[in-house]
């Protein structure tokens, strides 16, 4: 019986390696705040993540609490910011997009369910001033929410 040929084995290994390199997405930013998403029964899947910019609002992680305290903070990219920095953030995110895609840019708000609504309102006002009018709220899907009586 002749020996089994392994000449095509490197081709198969490199094809699999190339497939996983192409299909894997890397985390673009480190999450510095704790975000427990609010529950929702009706959710829609995000279609084009490349046209979405994320704004995180939540309590800073333990390593940042000595500096920033335990109140909810705004995270844009990898750093903590104030609501006034949102206009610069939106303009820099728009500059990264192609001219044809700028009108389809969406801002996704990932907000901790314990965050104060006043901070969320401040963020929304700044987004309005920056003409970022397509806003999406990120939530976790639950089957049904019991109404409190």
From TrEMBL:
GO terms for biological process: protein transport. The chain crosses the membrane at residues 6-26. GO terms for molecular function: transmembrane transporter activity. This is Biopolymer transport protein ExbD. Keywords: Cell membrane, Membrane, Protein transport, Transmembrane, Transmembrane helix, Transport. It comes from Acetobacteroides hydrogenigenes. It is a single-pass membrane protein; Single-pass type II membrane protein. Pfam families: ExbD. Belongs to the ExbD/TolR family. It is found in: Cell membrane. The keyword Membrane applies. The keyword Repeat does not apply. One of its GO terms (cellular component) is plasma membrane. InterPro entries: ExbD.
């Amino acid at each position: 019986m002749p020996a089994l040929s392994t000449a095509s084995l490197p081709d198969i290994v490199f094809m699999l390696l190339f497939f996983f390199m192409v299909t894997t997405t890397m985390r673009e930013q480190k999450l510095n705040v704790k975000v427990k998403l609010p529950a929702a029964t009706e959710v829609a899947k995000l279609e084009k993540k490349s046209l979405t910019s994320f704004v995180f609002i939540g309590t800073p992680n333990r390593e940042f609490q000595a500096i920033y305290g335990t109140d909810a903070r705004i995270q844009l990219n990898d750093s903590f910011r104030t609501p006034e920095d949102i206009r610069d953030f939106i303009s820099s995110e728009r500059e990264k997009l192609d001219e044809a895609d700028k009108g389809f840019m969406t801002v996704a708000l990932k907000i901790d369910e314990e965050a104060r609504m006043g901070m969320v309102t401040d963020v929304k006002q700044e987004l309005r001033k920056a003409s970022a009018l397509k806003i999406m709220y990120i939530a976790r899907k639950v089957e049904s929410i019991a109404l409190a009586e």
